[in-house]
Design goal:
There is one protein chain. This protein has 445 residues and is an alpha/beta fold. The chain has two domains: 245 residues, Glycogen Phosphorylase B (Rossmann fold, 3-Layer(aba) Sandwich), CATH 3.40.50.2000; 183 residues, Glycogen Phosphorylase B (Rossmann fold, 3-Layer(aba) Sandwich). Helices cover 41% and strands 18% of the residues. The chain has an eight-stranded parallel sheet, with helices on both faces. Strand 8, helix 4 and strand 9 form a beta-alpha-beta unit. Helix 2 runs parallel beside helix 3, helix 3 packs parallel to helix 4 and helix 4 packs across helix 16. The longest helix is centred in the C-terminal third of the chain and has 18 residues. The protein starts with 5 loop residues before the first strand and ends with a helix. 48% of the residues are buried.
Length: 445
C-alpha cells in the first residue's frame, strides 16, 4: 500500500526572520519564537471550523493554524467561518466573518452562498464528525455541494471501521475536496484502503506545535506551586475515554519508589460530556484517588487553558502521559504539543502515539495497564540520562512540526488545490460511488 507522494517537508523551507516575543505568567517568563511576517497572503483563504473562544481541540487548532498563516503571510485575505454548537454564542475576533449554526441545515447553504459571493479563492475545511449537524455530520455536505471554490479539507479523524453513514460522508468529503490533509501516515493508509482515496490527492502535514525552547522543568514549577516535585502531567478536555484512572491506579507503586511525585490533570470537562453528565468523570477520579490514599498527590486544574498557558504548564512536566483507552485515535494535539516541548512521554499505543513515539521518542505501554505505567514511570525517574536522551529525540523530531513550517506546508497544499481544480477529472473520485447514498442521507437528516 502506498503512502502519500507529498509530505509536509517535501520542499525546503525558506529561511525567515524571527522575533523573540515574551509571554509572562505570574513570576515566570516563557519565550515563544514567532515568525515575522515575510510576504503577503497570495490568495484569499476562508477557514471553516471551530474557533476560540469556543473550548475544544478543533477550535484551538483552527486558531493556531490561522495565527501561523497570518504570522508568515499577514492577516489580509484570511478569514474564518466559525461553527457554533447549539444554544451558544461567542465573542469571536475580527477574523471570524461568518458563523454556522451547527444543527441548522439551512445555515450550511447560507454559508456556501456567502463564500461564493465574497471573492474567496479557496476554502480550508476542518473536519471532525462531531462538530457538524446531521447524521455523521452530514450537513457539511450541503455546504460542500454548493461551494464554487477549491476546497482543502483537514481530516482530524479517519475511521478505520466507519458505519455506513460515516463512510458515505467521508467519501463525499473526499470527492468534493480538491486536496485532503492528514496528520499521520496511518491516516493516509486508512484513507486509501478503506475509502479508496488515491494517494496523489493526499498531503501529509503534521499537527502544528509552538516553537518552544528545550528547557528544564524546574524553571516552570513554582508558577504552579509544584516546586521540588517530580511532575507527571496529562492535559486536555476531560472525558471518560482518556484513561486517567490508569495513572491514578499506578501512583501507589510509583510513590513507593519516588515519594515526591505529583500527577497533574489539567483541563476542563469536555463541553459535550458536561452537558450530558456534568463532572461525573472528574468526581470518579477524585474518589479513586481518595480510595487509594493518593489524594494529596493528584492535582486537578479544572479549567480551559489557553495555548500560552499550556506552554508553561507542559514546561513543568518531567513526564507527560497519554493513557487513552482506545486504539482508534488518529490525532492527539496534546501529544504533539508534549513532543514539541521535548518531554519524556509515556503513552498507550493508539494510532498517533504508535507512529509519533517510534524510534525511542517515547515509551508505549498496554491499554488499561496501571502496572506497566508504574514500571515505565519508575524507570524514567530512576535514570536521568535515559530520560534526557528521550527528551532530546522527541524535541529534535518536533522541529518539523512547528507552526511556521506547518503553515508553509498548508500554503503549498493550497497552491496544489488551485492547480488540481483546473484538471477536468478532479471530482471523479468517488462521487458516483456514494452520490445516491449521500442524497438520501441529506434528505433524511
Amino acid at each position: 500500500m502506498s503512502t502519500p507522494n507529498i509530505s509536509a517537508n517535501s520542499q525546503p523551507d525558506t529561511l525567515m526572520r524571527r522575533e523573540l516575543r515574551p509571554a509572562v505568567f505570574g513570576r515566570m517568563s516563557a519565550f515563544f519564537l514567532q515568525p515575522a511576517p515575510s510576504r503577503s497572503l497570495p490568495i484569499r483563504v476562508a477557514v471553516i471550523g471551530n474557533h476560540l473562544p469556543r473550548q475544544c481541540g478543533i477550535a484551538t487548532f483552527t486558531t493556531d493554524l490561522c495565527d501561523a498563516i497570518a504570522a508568515d503571510y499577514g492577516h489580509s485575505g484570511l478569514s474564518v467561518v466559525a461553527v457554533n454548537d447549539p444554544q451558544s454564542s461567542y465573542a469571536y475576533p475580527a477574523r471570524v466573518r461568518f458563523e454556522i449554526a451547527e444543527c441548522d441545515k439551512s445555515s450550511y447553504r447560507a454559508t456556501a452562498n456567502y463564500l461564493n459571493s465574497s471573492n474567496v479563492d479557496l476554502v480550508c475545511l476542518q473536519h471532525e464528525y462531531g462538530i457538524f449537524g446531521g447524521n455523521a455530520g452530514s450537513y457539511v455536505l450541503e455546504l460542500l455541494q454548493h461551494l464554487r471554490t477549491p476546497v482543502v479539507t483537514t481530516l482530524h479523524t479517519v475511521l478505520r471501521e466507519p458505519d455506513l453513514n460515516q463512510r458515505v460522508v467521508m467519501q463525499q468529503i473526499a470527492a468534493r475536496s480538491d486536496r485532503l490533509i492528514v496528520m499521520s501516515a496511518f491516516s493516509s493508509r486508512v484513507l486509501q484502503a478503506v475509502y479508496g482515496v488515491p494517494s496523489e490527492k493526499i498531503d501529509l502535514i503534521p499537527h502544528g506545535i509552538p516553537d518552544l525552547p528545550f528547557a528544564q522543568p524546574d524553571i516552570y514549577k513554582d508558577s504552579f506551586s509544584i516546586g521540588g516535585k517530580s511532575v507527571l502531567l496529562t492535559f486536555g478536555l476531560l472525558s471518560p475515554n482518556k484513561g486517567f484512572e490508569s495513572v491514578i491506579q499506578a501512583l501507589p507503586r510509583i510513590l513507593s519508589r519516588h515519594k515526591n511525585v505529583v500527577y497533574v490533570i489539567a483541563g476542563a470537562t469536555h463541553p459535550h460530556v458536561w452537558a450530558r453528565e456534568g463532572d461525573r468523570y472528574r468526581d470518579q477520579l477524585q474518589a479513586l484517588a481518595r480510595e487509594l490514599g493518593v489524594e494529596e498527590n493528584v492535582v486537578f486544574h479544572n479549567r480551559f487553558f489557553s495555548p500560552q498557558e499550556m506552554a508553561s504548564l507542559i514546561g513543568s512536566a518531567d513526564i507527560y502521559i497519554t493513557p487513552y483507552c482506545h486504539e482508534a485515535q488518529a490525532v492527539s494535539g496534546t501529544l504533539a504539543y508534549a513532543m514539541g516541548a521535548g518531554k519524556a512521554i509515556i503513552s498507550t499505543p493508539y494510532w498517533h502515539a504508535a507512529e509519533l513515539l517510534s524510534e525511542g521518542r517515547g515509551t508505549l505501554v498496554p491499554f488499561k495497564d496501571p502496572m506497566s505505567i508504574a514500571t515505565a514511570t519508575n524507570e524514567l525517574l530512576d535514570n536521568d540520562a535515559a530520560r534526557l536522551a528521550m527528551r532530546k529525540r522527541a524535541y529534535d523530531h518536533g522541529r518539523q512540526m512547528v507552526w511556521n513550517r506547518v503553515a508553509q506546508s498548508y500554503m503549498r497544499s493550497f497552491a496544489r488545490a488551485r492547480v488540481d481544480r483546473l484538471q477536468p477529472s478532479h471530482l471523479k473520485f468517488p462521487v458516483q460511488v456514494a452520490k445516491k447514498n449521500a442524497a438520501s442521507l441529506l434528505a433524511n437528516a
